[in-house]
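Feature request disguised as a bug: please show the residue count (266) next to ABC transporter ATP-binding protein in the output. Example input:
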Amino acid sequence: MPASASNEMPAADLPPRTEKLAASIRQLCKEYRLSSGSVVALRDVSFDVPEGDFVSIMGPSGSGKSTLLNLLGCLDRPTSGGYFLGTDDVARMSDDQLADVRANRLGFVFQSFNLLPALSVLENIELPLHYSGQLSRTSRQRCERLAQRVGLGDRMDHRPMQLSGGQQQRVAIARSLVNDPRFLLADEPTGNLDTSTTAEILDLLTELNNEGRTILLVTHEPEVADLTRRTVVLRDGGLIYDGPPTGARAALQATAVRATASEVHR
Ligand SMILES: Nc1ncnc2c1ncn2[C@@H]1O[C@H](COP(=O)(O)OP(=O)(O)OP(=O)(O)O)[C@@H](O)[C@H]1O
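Example output, currently without the count:
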């Protein structure tokens, strides 16, 4: 989308609150326009993420979780509504400003790790710095410390193929920290891992959260959500629950019952 498109955005209804928020999402809507019609993927979603929060996003397939994460990660623009990172109105930023936000203020962790197979652990961690032309002896030392931080100090020369899934995800987490972002976005970070490796990765994310980083992750697994501080549940693009993870189960069950009932009536 051209940078000028952001100027056509309807203004958000409310200014951000003055308390320290990592992010504030206000009446966010996303509509995908297709030649055959349009799909409303998010409708009027609003919630705040205080600095240091650890939020899980849940909901059935197609409920809008990836769409929301893409918007929060500045990978896409909302159709309407507001998204503030701190007090900055992201929805009104130019494409260059968004790229800067993605590179320096946000960290991304993906289900499929997204490592380059030909590069070593250390080179994978350094990759964002390589792209932004910031490689230096100091940055290499920082990346070595990050490899050690995620328990891979003795594997820095290994290729991803030589690592377990959990170790690959550790590399990806180290890479996400390379510019020291305060806000991490994770899309099903344990979706490809077994139970014990899932626990290790969640321990690592919890440590990062305890250091003060804000974390927002998408998950289908209630056991993963239980380790976060708060769960947001989406259904049909709308927010239907925002509260402790334990309460999210009832909201999800109601969603499942509703889906089953609509199957029966079909
Ligand atoms: N690029 C797109 N173009 C058109 N429709 C889209 C696009 N991306 C997503 N959608 C639609 O938007 C809705 C929400 O999709 P989204 O991928 O955000 O859901 P989700 O909750 O992440 O699903 P899942 O758990 O299966 O990954 C769905 O109806 C989907 O088909």
